[in-house]
């Protein structure tokens, strides 16, 4: 993915049915998600969150240029992790029929603090700041009403909230790391408002002026302008390049201070963690790692022999990978809860058996190597949703980056996630960096640790699995084989220990391993 910021803004009718952290526009030119090179780890070696998302509030009068300032900040930041621009306009309250009649007659005050659902705004922002998912309301300016559906958001490193009342509520102000007020001349704000409402909302100049004199101007004088006293910085509504540069530099420094880099420690834990921390050496016993390893039958060993061989054709590799994934998923099903069930057979005899005792089951594939397990998963567990996570390594540091999250419906809503069992699919656990991030994502959504079943072809006993088991002991890990060794090298230009003159980044390769499983399966 290129390091330049990708910007997406489109109408509701164009919004994807399954929004992801890559792109999202909830209302035209208002709520937007922008992505560059992905989201780095927001947790430490113990699996706990080490930093919140960085929250910037942009307040100011209607037409002062708040949205423009928010977008200028993003553009000035350059190559950054995921950013959400969250508009206060999404949080207008639900209106009664009487209020709707007033709204369509331009007689309802939308500029008063009571028009905004401040508790819901604060609750959604608090979840995003704490690196959890949230589902924000969708408001229609055409219908003057909050719509029944909500929009799922997750994965922001930077959150920019903008709105006329962004600094009004004390509960919201407590969540901000940086508070900005956009100050603009009243005549310019009125001109901008007329242009926007006539062009984008289909209103007449007369109705815009009436609403401005009746509600907007009094609200600005009484509620909006006084909040400038809470701002850390006041930005002019035009010709503000210097102020934007200062704000962007400050945000970049904050992100640099919060950076977590520990993949190397996961890859070779016995060099960095003491024995008391639960870290392993290559000679660690499988019993200590608590892995659910398939019985090593001649059939299974034969399958792995075919999959390990570089002479195996892609057609044979796909066939035996699908066969192996089927065996793994069938084995993993025994770790779900079952309850008694009595049935009557076709010959009229009562038989006592078992049935699954779960409310929601889904799969999540860690792309792209996790896709090699999807066909087997669907063969064994019929008609369940399968989501995906795209976790790739940073080109410079080798640290994992979350580039994409498309999770099943039962995970996107917390009350459903708490009752769900999730099969996490990835081809191998070497350094365990991708596994670490994937599990952390599910926990952020409210999935219980003991309801995560990780299915994988291979585990490296000398890699990050020991740290993963120590941090997430209740996750069930089902694998087909265990390799002993992780070898450290360089992706390109390898010239010996430490690679003093070579180029590229460090990598850790499982041995004997199966090579690049995703490439062998798909190419």
UniProtKB/TrEMBL annotation:
It comes from the Eukaryota. Residues 1-24 are annotated as: Disordered. It comes from Lyophyllum shimeji (Hon-shimeji). The gene is URK1. This is Uridine kinase. Its EC number is 2.7.1.48. Residues 55-237 form the Phosphoribulokinase/uridine kinase domain. It catalyses: cytidine + ATP = CMP + ADP + H(+); uridine + ATP = UMP + ADP + H(+). It is an enzyme of class 2 (transferase). It holds the Pfam family PRK. Keywords: ATP-binding, Kinase, Nucleotide-binding, Transferase. Pathway: Pyrimidine metabolism; UMP biosynthesis via salvage pathway; UMP from uridine: step 1/1; Pyrimidine metabolism; CTP biosynthesis via salvage pathway; CTP from cytidine: step 1/3. Transmembrane segments: none annotated. The lineage of its organism: Eukaryota, Fungi, Dikarya, Basidiomycota, Agaricomycotina. NCBIfam families: PRK05480.1, udk. Belongs to the uridine kinase family. GO terms for molecular function: ATP binding; uridine kinase activity. The keyword Cell inner membrane does not apply.
